[in-house]
Design a protein that fits this description.
By secondary structure, the protein is mainly α. It has one domain. 78% of the residues lie in helices and 0% in strands. It has ten helices and no strands. Helix 3 packs across helix 9 and helix 4 runs parallel beside helix 8. The longest helix has 26 residues.
Length: 244
């Protein structure tokens, strides 16, 4: 990488970490979206693996209800693993044709759902059916685009979890999705040692951004910041989709 590209990558992870520090999610979407402006999707996703894994393990370990959440969400998590395997075998993973367009569309849909904030409620009786389906779709999109949010985030938000449990559940879903993405990248030869080492280094700006976001959180309204974040993500997604 050139010096200019290294600076761009570091700033991308600082911004992505900052967003996660303020609203508790968004690191993969922001990092992949920004990195996609300068890098092929596979390289962008490879750089994301370590920062995403560490920050999401941290998030899912920060609450007291991890085991009950695993018991409740295992159909979703199993679906993510199955979907990622299917996406890797049938579509070739993140190097599939049209991956750039798919990334842009996914980011735009993610932003539109967030802005619309639909009030959905999933009764416990249908979780065994909807959980695997949401997981399958999330797994496929994860290994094709590197974004873990759709439809896992709306699904989890519709379960009626308390705030602390919701944050922990999102971290759990993102952790499993990150591992699935890493396995897909390794299986397709897109995670060489050099990229893995660079991904470890990318953890530093990501954590720095998160810490900065936590500091700024005390001075801004998270709801207002979230709207501006989603509008920016929408614009970025449209740009990537049109660029292809």
């Amino acid at each position: 990488m050139s010096a200019l590209l290294l600076v761009f990558v570091a700033l991308s992870f600082v911004i992505a970490g900052f967003v996660k520090g303020v609203i508790g999610l968004g690191l993969p979407a922001v990092a992949i979206g920004l990195l996609g402006l300068a890098l092929p999707p596979a390289e962008a996703a490879s750089l994301l693996v370590v920062p995403s894994f560490v920050t999401n393990v941290w998030q899912c370990a920060s609450g007291p209800r991890l085991l009950p959440l695993i018991r409740r969400l295992w159909p979703l998590l199993a679906g993510i693993c199955a979907g990622s395997a299917a996406g890797t075998v049938m579509l070739g993973g993140i190097g599939a044709p049209g991956a750039g367009t798919a990334l842009g569309v996914t980011l735009a849909v993610y932003a539109l759902i967030g802005l619309a904030a639909p009030r959905m409620a999933i009764p416990p009786s249908v979780e065994p059916l909807l959980g695997p389906l949401a997981g399958l779709a999330t797994g496929v999109l994860t290994v094709v685009t590197g974004v873990f949010a759709i439809p896992a985030v709306p699904y989890i938000q519709a379960l009626g979890l308390a705030k602390e449990a919701l944050v922990q559940a999102l971290g759990l879903s993102f952790t499993v999705s990150t591992m699935a993405l890493a396995a897909s990248l390794a299986a397709t030869g897109a995670l060489p040692a050099s990229i893995a080492g660079a991904s470890m280094l990318a953890l530093v700006p990501a954590i720095a951004g998160m810490m900065l976001g936590r500091i700024v959180l005390r001075r801004i309204a998270p709801a207002t910041f979230r709207i501006w974040f989603l509008l920016g993500l929408l614009g970025l997604g449209v740009h990537l989709a049109l660029r292809g």
